[in-house]
Amino acid sequence: MKTRPTVLIIVVLFSNLAFAQEPLGAKPKRARTEDDYKPRKLKEVTTKGPGENSLSNKEETMIVQSDFLPSRVRVSYKGSVRNLPQIKRELLRQWALRYAGSPEFYTVPYESEMLFVENGTDYWLAVKKDLVPKIQQQFNMGEKIDLFLLRMGKVKNSNEWESLLLVEKFQKPK
């Protein structure tokens, strides 16, 4: 008879522990709002640590960052556009495979980078293809622009590390 209360207590304890944990598997996603993007400087976004689950490839030419750090930055538009380099395309694909589950959602819209400047430092930022002409039409070279962006990781060009930042939307500064 002593074993029944002991077994009952063990079952109750373990069932409470099981219900207290979050369920495994994918969690429902929600669209990011402007409040999700924290005001930061590009220098902070590009130099902040990679996150505990970040990965690098065996050639050590890229780092896929787990903390995508949604940020709102104020920069100046420089007017230049270029194709997204192949190594950054691969970094974006690797990030999407690991953290988004849908590579096409990120790889297809990002084909080019635009040049922006913050405190005298140039930054090439990946911009959605439908936003490129809108930015070109609405902003003159040197004009301030607020960008809402995500950090994907870093790639090694020569001996320098360069961040891959995705511009999701923009607005005129308020």
Give the secondary structure arrangement, pairings included.
Layout: H1 3-20, E1 38-39, H2 42-47, E2 55-56, E3 62-64, E4 71-83, H3 86-100, H4 103-107, E5 110-118, E6 121-128, H5 132-138, E7 144-157, E8 160-171
Parallel strand pairs: 1-4, 6-8
Antiparallel strand pairs: 2-3, 3-7, 4-5, 4-7, 5-6, 7-8
Short description:
The chain has helices spanning 3-20, 42-47, 86-100, 103-107, 132-138; strands at 38-39, 55-56, 62-64, 71-83, 110-118, 121-128, 144-157, 160-171. The protein has 174 residues and is an alpha+beta fold. It has a single domain (34-171), classed as OB fold (Dihydrolipoamide Acetyltransferase, E2P) (Beta Barrel).
List its traits.
174 residues; alpha+beta; OB fold (Dihydrolipoamide Acetyltransferase, E2P); five-stranded mixed barrel; 8 strands; 29% helix
Task: Describe it.
- The protein has helices at residues 3-20, 42-47, 86-100, 103-107, 132-138, and strands spanning 38-39, 55-56, 62-64, 71-83, 110-118, 121-128, 144-157, 160-171.
- It is of the alpha+beta class.
- It has one domain (34-171): OB fold (Dihydrolipoamide Acetyltransferase, E2P).
- It has a 5-stranded mixed barrel with strand order 4-5-6-8-7.
- The termini are far apart.
